[in-house]
Amino acid sequence: MYTGIVETTAVVAAVDPLETGCRIRIEASDEDALERDLEAQLAPEDSIAVDGVCVTAERVTENWFEAFLSAETVSRTTLAERAPGDRVNVERPLPADGRFHGHIVKGTVDTTARVLEVESGEDGAGREVTLEIPAGYEEYVVEKGAVALDGVSLTVADVDDDAGTFDVAVVPATEAVTTLSAARPGDRFHFEADIVAKYAARRAEFAG
Q: Domain 111-207 is in which class?
């Protein structure tokens, strides 16, 4: 389980398509927190979230790790479309005795959400991002509720049901440690709906 509080960013080093999915290599760089001896922080078979996608590290060296992406993961995310040099958000799972921040993020991305507009605040006050609500997920996007975008836990600032959009505010602290600082109209973010909202909707379906 994750919390959506991204620890750092890393760099895509390689993406190798396979018949049954693809394999991706993520590399730490000098500006990454992971650069401080990756092998001491991650072991083979450990889970780690890459742009909100929970993957299993297959090979780990001092400065990079590799993971396999199944066909299902490839179909729901954009990881297989990444190019060497692209930056991604990275978060290790929450330890059992860890302090809980953000919200419950499972790392099982539902789909992608397209960025429609980005409005920068004044004097470094962050930015407001407007996104299209993915079809079929309208009931899970609620004002002041939680959503994970590229693995980042965010609060829904506003929902426009008529337009089919929602807004999130990206504060400076979040911009500083995630890739959301580079958000542009047309970008697609990995979208994971709040699992609590999913269970509530499912219960209501059977109770009704």
A: mainly beta
